[in-house]
């Protein structure tokens, strides 16, 4: 064995490569020769969404799906001075996600590409670098009628520069599993991929240290490794860890494995992996068990955007999203319908959230004109490999979902694809569960399309009526079918046509398929079911099924948090405001889906309190007041994704003496309402809907109190108080101390309140935000589902009295944020960046 010459001077490194970029709408040299003007370059810090600050138009094809943002082709550029000392090393750019059809050029030469918009991919750039000199890196990408939701565009996830010596640990080359665990000890297996790209044999030593959450060393292993030129070998360590802290969503204890490759005393390469010690079991008799304990998944489907930031997956935004969802009572998320960002998974590991990470929204059958279906046959294996490589050390990931509402699943060809993809996932990682978001309606869509066309024809002959299905794709069709959806999902036709696709899975994921839950217990006694996507208003029925049926392990509502695009699927609309777009969509300028327990700023809707009541996480009654101005307005559109048009407020100036409907969410038998201490109405809980009491009350300013009664005895109460006539600004950051990292943000909640801090829902204002010092205003938004306002403008109209500003540090120092609004004294806050 021979040590590599000069190896002591070479070290591996992985660096943040998010700064120093600029972007523009792409204009090719040929277009410029033809007279087209090149767009100006705008400096940005990654992650960055190229669409969110751009134009919106009612004329965008399929605009309701994308929030009417205008797509296009974009390019990014950055300069990189390659150190002379890196000559002879492998230099890579690691992209966590570029939407979409990314082409990476170094000094004008194509260095790599990636078709899918959600896969992490590596581009080796050292063959194209000029060492000791400046180098230009460009990334081209596009977004155009290729998705059923808002995707954003550009380099919207992190980028890292990775430098490796010729003998090294492979990228994503450390895999940690815990195959044998009990309370006294855990067997931790660490598999390390090692590569020798050099010309001579290398004799190395591989050290592995296991650290606990506090950084204390709890176990160690060391072994010699011999690598011939061209070798790609796996070194495995089986390490016993005494008295391990176990990871679960309830107690997210983490460990770290630090793997060092040494030549003598010189560390040649090092990788650090965070992991969790846990076990995972599932069967139809016991359901899901984590560390031997039964777990019911209180799940939320989420899309990838971060509201006012668009699709930019900035670390703190991903972390805050998980914090908010956990606070709202969820213990699991489904990344719909694409692989989650590494930053999101890191947050789920730290905070404690189970994850169902999803591969694709389509396989070979496209859903939009230019989507991934045309790339699927050539790219699917690489994209599955990329997802598993990203996920396999994250203890939060317990499911791989291989698809969502795939039309092929009702055919033999779809069953074959199910087996191929599931087999690939299991070959790469046999430690997680494989599922698929199967929609029985979509799986037999070919058989029902004729019936839907006949229905439309009959409706046209009958005259104007319900047109919710028109122009709204599968969502509109599902809405229009109403209760027939349940009958179809449980039908023998769906049973027969989906059986093979379900057989390929560890857990049968069912989208809107709760009508199958009880019957499948008899038809398929070994089938374990999870509700991968469900109507939000049916959580009372669905959660009853989860708690009663051991083979049903959880429910994932659509959605935990509102999102951009699919405009209006959850918005309650009234007859006097309908117009524009299809009956299903709000039309332009619709911005968000208008569904979710939380709006796009993270503010909780009343649905959130209802869900917590159903889950048994809330003991006090929750009061939801129907907006009195809408009492006599006929509802024109309310979809299965809608909730009641209610808010948590007892401030309604101008409606004194008028009748207001109040809903109280409670697990009690009965609820009494009191206004200013006097009885104002009483109703039984569950008469029209489980966990809900509905009471008509005459509005008077003051205090509205809900008293929950069981067997006639008070068990809890809650109150709302009217705000005074004072309207002032409340400005509260989530944190005052920030770091200068590209991943950090400050979220500044802006609210209109009275002098006692009570929210003024009715008193809307346009708020203006200025940011000076070591930071910039990254985004400003509200929860409004329909608006023409831009997230990148420094002013925004409040919605239900709230807005949200997002501030991004640009360097160390102080940041001053000033918020003003008409009729309110301006408020200034200080943030510090260390």
From TrEMBL:
Glycoside hydrolase family 2 catalytic domain segment(s): 288-440
Domain Glycoside hydrolase family 2 immunoglobulin-like beta-sandwich: 172-278
Name of the featured protein: Beta-galactosidase
Gene: lacZ_2
A single GO molecular function term of this UniProt record: hydrolase activity, hydrolyzing O-glycosyl compounds
Keywords assigned: Glycosidase, Hydrolase
This protein's record includes keyword Hydrolase: yes
Alphabetical GO biological process terms: carbohydrate metabolic process
Chain ranges of the Glycoside hydrolase family domain: 729-829
InterPro entries: Beta-gal/glucu_dom_sf, DUF4982, Galactose-bd-like_sf, GH, GH2_Domain-Containing, Glyco_hydro2_dom5, Glyco_hydro_2, Glyco_hydro_2_cat
Record carries keyword Hydrolase: yes
Protein family per UniProt: Belongs to the glycosyl hydrolase 2 family.
Domain called DUF4982: residue spans: 657-715
